[in-house]
Every structure is written in C-alpha cells, then in structure tokens.
Write a structure and sequence with these properties.
DNA-binding, homotetramer, about 210 residues, 9 helices, mainly alpha
DNA sequence: GCCTAACCGAGACGGTACGTCCGGTCTTTTT
DNA sequence: AAAAAGACCGGACGTACCGTCTCGGTTAGGC
C-alpha cells in the first residue's frame, strides 16, 4: 500500500532502508502539533488557522511542522483524521438498542466537534481530491461503517426488510446532523437527533412510526 | 425589515433619507462584481479567489468593491446569495409529479454548482454568525421552502399522513445531495437523486416503496 | 505669449472667444482653494497634502479644483506663486540701508514660510521641468531681482567695485537662508541673517568687515 | 551613541543582548535594497519610487524591506545616507590646492547626484524631524566637515584672517551649488563652481580677487 | 568519548493577498 | 455651464501569511 497521503514520513520509513542516521524525530512533537491544530481549527476555522500559531502553541518551530507535513492543508487533514469516532463499536444486540446508542453518540460533544471541523475543512476538500480521499478513508468512512454494520446486523436478525438501501440509510443521520450544524452554527442536541431517528430514519427503515 | 448583513448599502438607503447627494452608485457595478465573484468562486474556491481578480474581471477598481462590501467574506456571501434556485415554484398538482420535478432539479448542474459553492463557503460561515444568518435567509431557506411547500400541498390533498415531520423531511434530499458532493467531489447525478427519493424520502413520507 | 503654465484658464479666456455661456466661474473659489493649498503645504508637506483635503478645506468639490488646475503639482505650484515677496521694492538710497532692510526681510516669518514651501516642493521641481519654469519665473526670480536691483543701484552709486559678480552675490543670502531651513527645520532668525550679511555677503561685495 | 533613527536594527543590536536567536538577517539584503532605492530615487524621484519596485529590483520581498525600515520615507533616508562624499579627505597642503580639489569635487557627477537626491527628499525632511536629524548627521555634516577642516588647516597655516566665520563660509559653496541644481534642474558644471569660488568664496575668505 | 548527521526552536527570506488611501475622471442634483 | 458631492479606475502603501531556508544548539548513533 502507498504511503498515507497528508503525511511525510520520509525520515521514519516503515520498511527499514539504509539505517536511519542522525538524531531521530521526537515523536512527542507530532501529537503536540496535531492537538494545537485541532484546537485552532475548531476555534478559528481553517483560514484563520496559521501554521505559525499552530507551531507556537505546540512549542515548536515552523520547520518542525513542515518537516512532517508538506502544507497547511495536509497538516489539517491529518489533524482531523486523528479525531476518533465516539463509539468504536455499537452492538447492543438489538436494532432498538443500537439506535438508542447511536442517538446518544450523534449528539455528543465529540460529534458536534467533528461536524464543526468538517465545515471548516469543506472548502479545502472541494479543490484537493487527494486530501478528499484521505479524509474519506480516515474520517468519514469509519463513521459510516459503524452505522452500516449496525444495519447489517439488524438485517441478519430479520429486523429489517431485505430491500432497504443500507448505505443510503446509513448516511442519513450523520448527514442531517452535519447539515444542522452547518446551517445554524449550533448542535441540535439530543432532541434533534431523536427527531431524526424517530421521524425520518425509522420510517425509512420500514419501521412503524 | 432590517438592513441585509454582509452588504454595505449606506449610500443607497431603501428608505429615502435627506435626498442623496453626489454621484449615485452605479448599480451595474454590483452585478458585474458579483458575477465575477461567483465565476471565480466556482472555478477556484474561496481561498484562491482574490478580490483584486474579482475587481479586474468586473472591470472595476478594488475601492469600488470595498465601498460595497467590508471584506472578501461578505462579498462572497452576497455573491452566493444571488444564486437563484433552479425552480422557483414546484407545483404539478400531485406529490408524484412534484417529486419527479424535484428529483430533476436536485441533480441539475445548477444544484451541483450551488453545493460546490456551499462547500467553498462553509468554513467562513462556521465562524461568522452574521454571515451565516444572511446565508440562511437568502440562500438555504428559500430552497427548503420549496420542498416544504410541496409537502404541505401534498398533505392538504391528503397524500401524506398528518403526523409526517415536514421540516425534517424537507431537508432530507438537499442534505444528502450536499453530503455526496462534499464527500466525493462529484455530483451523484440523476441516479443518485432517484435513489434518495425512492429509497429514503418516499418511505420517510410513509409511502410504500 | 503662451498661457501661463500651471493654470487652466480655458473658461475665462483673455482673448474673448465665442462669448461665454452658462454660469460663470466663481472667482472666490480660486482664492479659497489656493489658500487652503498653502496652508496644507506648510503644515503637512507636498506628499501629505491631498487634493481632497484642499477641496474640503476650501468648501469646494474636487471637480472644481481640477477644472482650474490639471494636477496636484500645478495647483501647488500656483499656490506657491501666490506668495508675495515681503518687500516689493527695497530702496533706501544707500547700500547700508538697503542691506539693513534686506536683513530684516530675510528673516521675516514670511521668508521662513517661503523657504519651507520651497523645501516641500523641491521634489516635484526636480522631475517636472515645466513646473520648475513656472516656479522660477513667478517665485524665485522676483526675489532675486530685488537683490540684484539693490546691488546695481549700489554699483551706480559707486558703492561697489565694478568687477563684483552681482548675480552670484544676489543669490548668496537667500541660498544660505534656505539651506538653513532645509537642514535644521527652523528659521535662523535675525541673528543668522546678520551673520550671513556681515560675515559673508559684505566681504564678498569687497566691503571691509 | 543612540540607535540611528530611520533604521530598525532591533534584530542586529550593536551591544550584544541576550544572544540572537533564529536565522540572522542577511546583510547582503541591506546593500541590495539600498542600492536599488538609490537607483530608483535618482531615476524617478521620491514619489515615483515604490517600495514594491525597490524590493523586486533587489530580488527581495516587501516584508524583507519593512522588517528593516518602518516606512518608505525611512528607507529612502537611509539610502541617501549611504551616498559617500566624492572626496574623503581634502588636503593638498595649501589653501589654493585644496580649493582647486574642492572645486573639482563640487561639480562632479557624484555631487550633482547628491544634490538631486537632496531635492527629492527635502519634502520628507521638512515634516519628519527625526529623519532630518539622521540626514544631517550622516549626510550633510560629513560634507560640511570636509570644508570646515580645509579652512581650519588654512587658518593654522596663516592663510586666513583669524576673524573669518568658518562654519558659514564652509556652507557657502555647497549651498550655492544645491541652489543651482534646485532652480535650474541642471548641474552648473565646473564653470559655475569656479565662478562661486572665485567670485564669492575667495572674497568672503578675505582673499584678493 | 568523540564525530557526524539529523533533529530542534527561532526567525529571516521571496512571494502574494488583504484592506486603505489617494490622484485624476466622471456623473449626479442644485444653483 | 459651473457648483458641491461623491462614485469610479488604477495603483501604492503597510500588514500578514505560506512554504523555504539558515542560524546556533541538541541528541542520537557509529567509531
């Protein structure tokens, strides 16, 4: 597999080359820089975030940043990819239980942050296909996969009609939550998540209202 | 109604004050500048768009731009607000007919452009509540209103169950289309719009699949 | 003779053309504008003086200024030319008396102002030969002529050796006074003028110290 | 001695402070920028000179210019101060020899250039006392000092009457040469310099014509 | 235990866009 | 037709940021 886009790992190759010489990179700088990037991204948005400030906040020099990432865009993308989904797995044994857990997760502070970041970053994605790919692979798809898995388990248990369009239904909740943050600037809260699940998602899954 | 945010109309007040003195603003400059802004926004994205180039393309001076808008962000926001929805009304007399027209409109080149622009602009909206407001009032809500109207007419005709969550359902199609553009960089095409309508929207409206 | 450079008199021709139609120019605007120009020139210098401010101070519009002068430089030059020498004639009947009067005039507030203005305007003169000509004809030469006349009368009275280089000697006092203002920013005062006359001018005229 | 006004030396202190950190300023940029500034100043004059062009000619960025000087005015002043007098010393052993050398120097191309630059810059000096001070200290006074020294040596040798006003006499030649350039736009040439020395300076020094 | 290469923070470098201001022109209404 | 007012184009100013480079100083090996 190719090297992960958005990250310059030239000095710390996985496949050991001709033996690394010189002082090795300080791995603690990575975390410090990415944390600072996330913080600024959330507080200020993509275009107010400056590499200089990220470096300063991380107690690093600009060169240390650019040694690891080729551009501001790649740095930010990598920072975003670090945001872990709120739930790793989502398996309570029943669709109703899973949906309950999903509802809770969808309105968590963590999810709101993810949505804000997504908004910040949309303009870059729109013109950098490579970064879009990184972003999808490392950020969006894991989240969608969570719901897709949930729905597939439900189908296997016979809780879902066999003709439900699972990939589409899986995108429904995240998409509407993102839309809401984009258009109001605020999280919708648990109330809003419940309204989506009850009013739109369940009917779309062929469940009675 | 209050003055529209994102636009400096100080020299052309709607409510005629103490008689305007001096040379009036040339309204043709507004159109020329906004058109240039939209063109650049679509071609280059928000942060590659420069005010200088917008002005030059419009055959205007930078001062003429900044006399009307206080910043690049406000200019762009106003330009976006000028994008008209592809359909002004959507009334074929039946829900099925309306949905057919909506499907067509949702995957039109025009809608795709609007979604791309929305992506370009999301990062600015995220940190400027005033601009977000302008944007919602003049761009998003008219679009949502179109679908809301359609659904309300359907309900009046008895084509919809009375307990359908219309506002939520109205956001469904645009939200998923935007999501798709954001995450793939391409329009989904008519195919994708049909899949949303058939697989998610109709069920959510309580219609048989 | 050609029209005086630095002044656009096209609408008030000396040689009566095809009879002037419409509203005649308001001659009071000329004075108001030139006065404002002088004031700003002295207070702020040539490059901080703006035509806008001159017009506003004169209670005029910019067009009224540009109808009369073709450029800021010409306006300023014309304003400078309006500064009258402190003494029109200088004839007490004896060289000593004339020199006394000259000394007094040379350190007057009026002369200091003229020198400041000269400093302000030097940079324009250096690259606009036409304006330099206007300036010499209407400002510098009348002043030099005053002293030249004084020295010629002295020679006729036999108070001067016949081989004195009168034009050169005539420039001596103004030149050193200007130099002083240029290099110190302040007038030298009567003391300084007396020192020039006694220590340099009189000896140069072949008079005993 | 205090820091030289008109120059931001904050990053290269003469008195070594707490050890300089980061990449040191490239001294070659100073020279390149100042040379470009002088060239443009002579060719175009003060107000046609633009910082952008200076930077481009020097192969520098605007930031590099503004890191060193706070404004165009300070940059130009510093550039002027770099112009070296055509003669460092002036000592032939006799007053006549020194005067001969001075005459030659006074009508050199170099002196004319200095006078043109002085004219360019006079308007800024008139309103910025700090810059005037820099200018005097680093440009005017060294030149005057040359002649003052010459006259003092002559006095020691007994070639001058003891009551000659040396500072005043020292200013005579440069002042009249500057005046000439200012008022004619051309150098007077050797002829004019000789006329000053023979017709005004020598008599003022009490020497027979 | 020293040598050397690559790291580190700091910050200067070339380039480019921002938003402001001014010169000179043009277009309104009013006189 | 001239007046005041002020919009118009063009272009310079001084600031800020991106991505690169260069300092002095540090931290691993390899010898």
């Amino acid at each position: 597999m190719a090297a992960v886009p958005g990250r310059d790992t030239s000095a710390t190759p996985l496949s050991d080359g001709p033996a690394p010489r010189g002082r090795p990179r300080d791995p603690s700088r990575d975390a410090a820089i990415l944390d600072a990037a996330i913080e600024l991204l959330v507080e200020e948005g993509y275009d107010r975030l400056t590499v200089e400030r990220v470096a300063t906040m991380a107690g690093a020099g600009k060169a240390t940043v650019y040694r690891r990432w080729n551009s501001k865009a790649e740095l930010v993308m990598d920072a975003v990819a670090r945001i872990k989904p709120p739930l790793d797995t989502l398996d309570t044994g029943s669709l109703d239980g899973d949906l309950e857990a999903l509802t809770t997760a969808s309105c968590s502070q963590h999810s709101e942050l993810a949505n804000r970041v997504m908004a910040s970053v949309a303009s870059v994605l729109a013109r950098e296909p490579e970064l879009l790919d990184t972003f999808r692979t490392r950020f969006t798809e894991p989240r969608i996969q969570l719901i897709t898995g949930m729905l597939e388990r439900a189908r296997e248990r016979g809780e879902l009609a066999p003709d439900i369009d699972i990939p589409m239904a899986a995108g429904l909740l995240p998409s509407l939550m993102l839309q809401h943050v984009l258009l109001t600037g605020m999280s919708g809260g648990r109330e809003y998540a419940e309204r989506i699940v009850g009013g739109v998602l369940l009917p779309a899954l062929g469940r009675p209202r």
